[in-house]
Specification:
It is a single chain. The protein contains four helices and 17 strands. Helix 1 packs antiparallel against helix 4. About 25% of the residues lie in helices and about 30% in strands. The chain has a six-stranded antiparallel sheet with strand order 8-7-17-16-13-14, with no helix packed on it. A five-stranded mixed sheet has the order 10-9-11-12-15, with no helix packed on it. By secondary structure, the protein is an alpha+beta fold. The radius of gyration is 19 Å and the shape is globular.
Length: about 220
Protein backbone atom coordinates (compact mmCIF):
# COMPACT_ATOMS: atom_id res chain seq x y z
CA UNK A 1 0.00 0.00 0.00
CA UNK A 2 2.54 2.63 1.15
CA UNK A 3 1.94 6.22 2.13
CA UNK A 4 1.02 7.29 -1.42
CA UNK A 5 -1.92 4.89 -1.62
CA UNK A 6 -2.84 5.82 1.96
CA UNK A 7 -2.98 9.47 0.87
CA UNK A 8 -5.08 8.74 -2.22
CA UNK A 9 -7.64 6.76 -0.22
CA UNK A 10 -7.91 9.49 2.41
CA UNK A 11 -8.36 12.09 -0.33
CA UNK A 12 -11.36 10.12 -1.58
CA UNK A 13 -12.76 10.07 1.97
CA UNK A 14 -12.77 13.86 2.23
CA UNK A 15 -14.24 14.63 -1.18
CA UNK A 16 -17.40 16.69 -1.39
CA UNK A 17 -18.73 18.41 1.71
CA UNK A 18 -15.62 17.65 3.78
CA UNK A 19 -13.10 18.78 1.16
CA UNK A 20 -13.04 22.41 2.33
CA UNK A 21 -11.96 21.39 5.82
CA UNK A 22 -8.81 19.72 4.47
CA UNK A 23 -7.52 22.41 2.10
CA UNK A 24 -5.16 23.77 4.74
CA UNK A 25 -3.70 22.79 8.07
CA UNK A 26 -2.69 19.32 9.20
CA UNK A 27 -3.13 16.68 6.47
CA UNK A 28 -4.02 13.02 7.19
CA UNK A 29 -0.92 11.72 5.37
CA UNK A 30 1.33 13.62 7.81
CA UNK A 31 -0.05 11.45 10.61
CA UNK A 32 0.88 8.37 8.57
CA UNK A 33 4.41 9.71 8.13
CA UNK A 34 4.76 10.35 11.87
CA UNK A 35 3.53 6.83 12.65
CA UNK A 36 6.06 5.13 10.35
CA UNK A 37 8.80 7.40 11.75
CA UNK A 38 7.87 6.29 15.27
CA UNK A 39 8.19 2.67 14.16
CA UNK A 40 11.66 3.35 12.75
CA UNK A 41 12.87 5.26 15.79
CA UNK A 42 11.65 2.70 18.34
CA UNK A 43 12.55 -0.50 16.50
CA UNK A 44 14.58 -3.02 18.50
CA UNK A 45 16.78 -5.88 17.32
CA UNK A 46 15.79 -9.16 18.97
CA UNK A 47 16.45 -12.88 18.38
CA UNK A 48 13.15 -13.25 16.55
CA UNK A 49 13.82 -10.28 14.26
CA UNK A 50 13.49 -6.50 14.33
CA UNK A 51 10.64 -5.62 16.69
CA UNK A 52 8.55 -2.50 16.12
CA UNK A 53 5.82 -0.76 18.15
CA UNK A 54 2.32 -2.08 17.62
CA UNK A 55 0.29 0.08 20.02
CA UNK A 56 0.02 3.73 18.93
CA UNK A 57 -1.52 6.89 20.36
CA UNK A 58 -2.05 9.86 18.03
CA UNK A 59 -2.56 13.16 19.87
CA UNK A 60 -4.10 16.10 17.99
CA UNK A 61 -5.12 19.62 18.93
CA UNK A 62 -8.79 20.09 19.78
CA UNK A 63 -9.46 21.93 16.51
CA UNK A 64 -7.72 19.29 14.37
CA UNK A 65 -9.50 16.48 16.22
CA UNK A 66 -12.76 18.23 15.36
CA UNK A 67 -11.73 18.52 11.69
CA UNK A 68 -10.97 14.80 11.53
CA UNK A 69 -14.09 13.71 13.44
CA UNK A 70 -16.06 12.81 10.30
CA UNK A 71 -13.42 10.33 9.14
CA UNK A 72 -11.83 9.32 12.45
CA UNK A 73 -12.86 5.65 12.28
CA UNK A 74 -11.66 5.35 8.68
CA UNK A 75 -8.43 7.16 9.58
CA UNK A 76 -7.71 4.67 12.36
CA UNK A 77 -8.30 1.75 9.98
CA UNK A 78 -5.97 3.27 7.40
CA UNK A 79 -3.24 3.95 9.98
CA UNK A 80 -3.36 0.31 11.07
CA UNK A 81 -2.88 -0.67 7.42
CA UNK A 82 0.04 1.77 7.11
CA UNK A 83 1.72 0.13 10.11
CA UNK A 84 1.26 -3.35 8.65
CA UNK A 85 2.58 -2.34 5.24
CA UNK A 86 5.58 -0.49 6.68
CA UNK A 87 6.40 -3.50 8.83
CA UNK A 88 6.24 -5.73 5.76
CA UNK A 89 8.52 -3.39 3.76
CA UNK A 90 11.10 -3.06 6.55
CA UNK A 91 10.83 -6.69 7.77
CA UNK A 92 9.64 -5.58 11.21
CA UNK A 93 7.91 -7.98 13.61
CA UNK A 94 5.01 -7.14 15.94
CA UNK A 95 4.55 -8.87 19.31
CA UNK A 96 0.81 -8.19 19.37
CA UNK A 97 -2.07 -6.80 17.31
CA UNK A 98 -1.68 -3.31 15.85
CA UNK A 99 -3.93 -0.70 17.44
CA UNK A 100 -4.25 3.06 16.97
CA UNK A 101 -6.05 5.44 19.34
CA UNK A 102 -6.66 9.13 18.67
CA UNK A 103 -6.69 11.55 21.60
CA UNK A 104 -7.00 15.29 22.14
CA UNK A 105 -4.07 17.29 23.49
CA UNK A 106 -5.48 20.43 25.04
CA UNK A 107 -2.06 22.10 25.06
CA UNK A 108 -1.35 21.40 21.37
CA UNK A 109 -1.68 24.14 18.76
CA UNK A 110 -3.48 23.50 15.45
CA UNK A 111 -1.21 21.66 13.04
CA UNK A 112 0.75 19.88 15.77
CA UNK A 113 0.59 16.09 16.06
CA UNK A 114 2.26 13.70 18.48
CA UNK A 115 2.54 9.98 17.77
CA UNK A 116 3.81 7.58 20.42
CA UNK A 117 4.24 3.86 19.97
CA UNK A 118 4.82 1.01 22.40
CA UNK A 119 5.42 -2.71 22.04
CA UNK A 120 2.47 -4.39 23.71
CA UNK A 121 2.29 -8.17 23.84
CA UNK A 122 -1.04 -9.94 23.69
CA UNK A 123 -1.95 -13.44 24.81
CA UNK A 124 -4.78 -13.43 22.30
CA UNK A 125 -4.39 -15.26 18.94
CA UNK A 126 -2.75 -13.06 16.30
CA UNK A 127 -5.12 -10.59 14.65
CA UNK A 128 -5.91 -11.58 11.07
CA UNK A 129 -7.87 -9.90 8.30
CA UNK A 130 -8.48 -9.75 4.57
CA UNK A 131 -7.73 -6.48 2.80
CA UNK A 132 -9.50 -5.70 -0.48
CA UNK A 133 -7.97 -3.61 -3.27
CA UNK A 134 -10.14 -0.61 -2.31
CA UNK A 135 -8.93 -0.72 1.31
CA UNK A 136 -11.96 -2.40 2.85
CA UNK A 137 -11.13 -5.03 5.45
CA UNK A 138 -12.74 -8.20 6.76
CA UNK A 139 -11.63 -9.26 10.24
CA UNK A 140 -11.19 -13.02 10.59
CA UNK A 141 -12.35 -14.96 13.61
CA UNK A 142 -13.33 -18.53 14.42
CA UNK A 143 -15.95 -18.75 11.66
CA UNK A 144 -15.09 -19.47 8.01
CA UNK A 145 -15.44 -16.59 5.52
CA UNK A 146 -16.83 -17.54 2.12
CA UNK A 147 -15.80 -15.40 -0.85
CA UNK A 148 -18.18 -15.17 -3.80
CA UNK A 149 -20.96 -13.31 -5.59
CA UNK A 150 -23.89 -14.59 -3.51
CA UNK A 151 -25.31 -12.07 -1.03
CA UNK A 152 -24.96 -14.56 1.82
CA UNK A 153 -21.19 -14.86 1.37
CA UNK A 154 -19.06 -13.35 4.11
CA UNK A 155 -17.12 -11.42 1.47
CA UNK A 156 -19.31 -10.46 -1.50
CA UNK A 157 -17.53 -9.46 -4.72
CA UNK A 158 -19.18 -7.91 -7.77
CA UNK A 159 -16.55 -9.52 -10.01
CA UNK A 160 -18.11 -11.39 -12.97
CA UNK A 161 -15.13 -13.76 -12.98
CA UNK A 162 -15.91 -14.85 -9.41
CA UNK A 163 -18.19 -17.84 -8.84
CA UNK A 164 -21.24 -17.65 -6.62
CA UNK A 165 -19.28 -19.45 -3.90
CA UNK A 166 -15.70 -19.22 -5.03
CA UNK A 167 -13.28 -19.71 -2.12
CA UNK A 168 -13.19 -19.97 1.65
CA UNK A 169 -10.82 -18.69 4.33
CA UNK A 170 -11.10 -20.53 7.64
CA UNK A 171 -9.11 -21.42 10.76
CA UNK A 172 -6.48 -23.92 9.67
CA UNK A 173 -7.25 -26.31 12.55
CA UNK A 174 -10.44 -27.21 10.67
CA UNK A 175 -8.42 -29.36 8.24
CA UNK A 176 -5.49 -30.36 10.41
CA UNK A 177 -3.09 -27.51 9.56
CA UNK A 178 -3.25 -26.68 13.23
CA UNK A 179 -1.75 -23.66 14.96
CA UNK A 180 -3.25 -20.96 17.15
CA UNK A 181 -4.44 -18.07 15.04
CA UNK A 182 -3.54 -19.83 11.77
CA UNK A 183 -5.75 -19.64 8.68
CA UNK A 184 -6.00 -21.40 5.34
CA UNK A 185 -7.62 -20.77 1.99
CA UNK A 186 -9.38 -23.34 -0.18
CA UNK A 187 -11.14 -23.27 -3.54
CA UNK A 188 -14.83 -24.25 -3.52
CA UNK A 189 -14.96 -25.76 -7.00
CA UNK A 190 -15.01 -22.38 -8.70
CA UNK A 191 -15.06 -21.99 -12.47
CA UNK A 192 -11.86 -19.94 -12.72
CA UNK A 193 -9.99 -21.32 -9.74
CA UNK A 194 -8.21 -19.64 -6.83
CA UNK A 195 -4.56 -18.56 -6.76
CA UNK A 196 -2.23 -18.06 -3.81
CA UNK A 197 0.61 -15.70 -4.65
CA UNK A 198 -0.07 -16.30 -8.33
CA UNK A 199 -0.09 -20.12 -8.12
CA UNK A 200 -3.37 -22.06 -8.59
CA UNK A 201 -4.35 -24.13 -5.55
CA UNK A 202 -5.92 -27.60 -5.63
CA UNK A 203 -5.98 -28.25 -1.88
CA UNK A 204 -6.25 -26.07 1.25
CA UNK A 205 -3.18 -23.88 1.69
CA UNK A 206 -1.94 -22.27 4.90
CA UNK A 207 -1.81 -18.46 4.83
CA UNK A 208 0.96 -16.24 6.13
CA UNK A 209 1.14 -12.49 6.58
CA UNK A 210 1.26 -10.68 3.24
CA UNK A 211 -0.04 -13.55 1.10
CA UNK A 212 -2.06 -12.59 -1.99
CA UNK A 213 -5.25 -14.55 -2.72
CA UNK A 214 -6.64 -14.06 -6.23
CA UNK A 215 -10.24 -14.94 -7.10
CA UNK A 216 -11.39 -14.00 -10.57
CA UNK A 217 -9.83 -10.61 -11.31
CA UNK A 218 -9.70 -9.60 -7.63
CA UNK A 219 -6.61 -9.93 -5.44
CA UNK A 220 -7.07 -9.92 -1.68
CA UNK A 221 -4.23 -9.51 0.82
CA UNK A 222 -4.07 -11.60 3.97
CA UNK A 223 -2.63 -9.77 7.00
CA UNK A 224 -1.78 -11.27 10.37
CA UNK A 225 -0.01 -9.38 13.15
Amino acid sequence: MGLQQFERRLERMVEGVFARAFRGGLQPVEIGRRLTREMDLRRTIAPRGTLAPNDFVVTLSASDRNRFSAIEDELVTELVSVAHEHAKTEAYVFIGPVSVAIETGEDLSPGMVLVTGEMVKSDEPPEARLVLPDGRTITLGSAPVTIGRLPECGLVLADPNVSRQHAEVRPAAASGLAGTGRYEVSDMGSTNGTKLNGIPIVAPQALKDGDQVTVGATTIRFEQA
